[in-house]
Amino acid sequence: MIDLLTSAVIWGRTLDAATCLLLVALGGYLCIRSGVFNIALEGAMIFACFAAVACSHWASAWGLGVLGGVAAGVLVTGVLALACVYLHADVLLVGLALNLLGLGATPLLLQWAFDIRGGFTSPDVRPLPHLGLPGIDAIPWLDTVISGRTVLTYAAWLLTAVVVIWLGHTRSGLALRAVGLREEIAGASGVPVRRTRAVALLAGGALVGLGGVQLALGDVAQFSENMTSGRGFIALAMVLIAGRRAWTLLPLSVGFAVFDVVGLSLQSEGLPSELGHVLPYAAALAILLLARLWSRRRGPGGVHA
């Protein structure tokens, strides 16, 4: 176990896995700060995975795969925005429907587009490029852990800082927070409530789409049915744990990714494969409960659903 936790390869894989969770959680965070509890992260993510692989295959370019994944994420959350923000549908029911649609429709799209079931990969599917960091490459251990990650890994770190600064120090970010906290007061102050929420949902959908791209085109450029495996729900748990502290999504993503990667690695030690799959969800439940208990002890300012 000690060897696993100190292995540079394990921590490199952890950062790759954390990137996907971080991007999806950032998307869900924007939604919840606007006052919309978006549970459709899983559905948007699986659509983004399929679109990223399909576009990368047809164009033989990873850049178009990124655009396809982002477009799919925006499209799914756009449906949610139309139904819930403008047509006043129940957000939980619409989100659940989109999740079920994503898990059910992508196998059909896979068979229709590529005449295959289960999964798809091809030499024409271009993976995301991996970037070396000058200076870091010469440092043992760090050269394997930090350098050589995908372009979206470094973009996710930057986007975390952008979201934190934007929400806390810009006029539009403060307006978004006002809409999420007190929409009546925000509307009376001249903030366009529905438009602000719709834009937040679309921006969140783009981030969720990037998370799907990282999952599909990161380590292995392929699509398989149900490849998200509940990551959207783990990201949603991260959002609830983070509360009003967006920066905590970064360490949370690394923490959950450690459980995922170590759980899979332990299978080679003879442990049941089911244990490796259940570890991230058990950790999410335990941390969510502990965060809720801690917030009650501290009073206001803890976890906000």
From TrEMBL:
Which GO MF term does the entry hold, naming one? transmembrane transporter activity
**Superkingdom of the organism of origin:** Bacteria
Could you tell me the membrane topology recorded for this protein?
Multi-pass membrane protein
Its subcellular locations are: Cell membrane
Q: List, alphabetically, the Pfam families matched.
A: BPD_transp_2
Q: Does the keyword Membrane apply?
A: yes
List the InterPro entries hit by this protein, alphabetically: ABC_transp_permease
User: Could you state one GO cellular component term attached to this entry?
Assistant: plasma membrane
Its chief place of residence is: membrane
Q: Which UniProt keywords apply?
A: Cell membrane, Membrane, Sugar transport, Transmembrane, Transmembrane helix, Transport
Residue ranges annotated as transmembrane are 14-32, 39-59, 65-85, 92-114, 151-168, 198-217, 223-242, 249-266, 278-295
Name-wise, this protein is: Simple sugar transport system permease protein
Q: Which organism is it from?
A: Thermocatellispora tengchongensis
